[in-house]
Specification:
- There is one protein chain.
- By secondary structure, the chain is of the alpha+beta class.
- It contains 1 helix and 4 strands; from the N terminus they run βαβββ.
- β2 and β3 form a beta hairpin.
């Protein structure tokens, strides 16, 4: 049976997705050159993405405020 091997990503809806990126960059020094934060695979088991999406994004059900991605193996 396959199981979860880590956290692949966290996706959060935001009224203004640029605002949380700016806050994290200003206060924590984390940049988002590709529209998400990527935590390097050298410090994790694999890359972990954190992305803020517009409330209208169809990437996951619009009725849900957030989504976690758990890779399996």
């Amino acid at each position: 049976m396959a199981g979860v091997t880590g956290l692949g990503g966290a996706f959060v809806r935001a009224d203004n997705p640029e605002a949380p990126y700016a806050w994290y960059e200003r206060h924590l020094g984390i940049s988002s050159p590709h529209g998400s934060f990527l935590l390097a695979h050298e410090t994790q088991r694999a890359y972990v993405a954190v992305a803020f999406l517009p409330r209208s994004s169809k990437y996951f059900p619009v009725s849900k405020p957030a989504m976690l991605n758990f890779p399996g193996g």
